[in-house]
Amino acid sequence: MEYYNVGKIVNTHGVRGEVRVLATTDFIDERFTAGNTLYLQQAEEPLPLKIEKARQHKGFVLVKFAGYDNINDVEKFRDHELMVSADDQQPLDDGQYYYHQIIGLDVETTDGQKLGKIKEILSPGANDVWVVERPEKRDLLLPVIDDVIKKVDLDHQLVIVELMEGLE
């Protein structure tokens, strides 16, 4: 089964088994809801953890897992990633994509010039920026706006772009 990161446990909170999670998902309310199951990344098989309750607090999500009632139970979870299974991913609207769908796609211009592969996604502000790794050139930063991203073809693992003046 495939898993995708939704946050990282950065510390414990209090003595009653809560953990402090730095969320890495756009779907905080859906992912961190009582009754949902998250998976703790570990060396062996991921450990399923059912959320008893969760709340946002000072830029973090405080999560209490069912059956883990004191700090000693959750101390070992610190610095581990929390994941959802691929089956638990929410469907997205047309034109929206999960990061794992975009990273690794080939990038070409509208006239067929191959530019490279998307190696990471930055989220600095109003829109994401796709970082394209190019052979023997510096990385290309593509703002994810309609003027630049013309087509995303997941079936062919390809993104078609139109380079605006000053991008290259």
TrEMBL record:
* Known role: An accessory protein needed during the final step in the assembly of 30S ribosomal subunit, possibly for assembly of the head region. Essential for efficient processing of 16S rRNA. May be needed both before and after RbfA during the maturation of 16S rRNA. It has affinity for free ribosomal 30S subunits but not for 70S ribosomes.
Q: Does the keyword rRNA processing apply?
A: yes
Which SUPFAM superfamilies has this protein been placed in?
Answer: PRC-barrel domain, Translation proteins
Q: Which NCBIfam families match?
A: 16S_RimM
Q: What sections of the protein cross the membrane?
A: none
Enumerate the spans annotated as PRC-barrel domain. Answer: 95-167
- Membership in a protein family: Belongs to the RimM family.
Q: What is this protein called?
A: Ribosome maturation factor RimM
Q: Which domain of life is it from?
A: Bacteria
- Domain RimM N-terminal residue range list: 6-87
Quaternary structure, per UniProt, is: Binds ribosomal protein uS19.
Ordered alphabetically, the record's keywords are: Chaperone, Cytoplasm, Ribosome biogenesis, rRNA processing
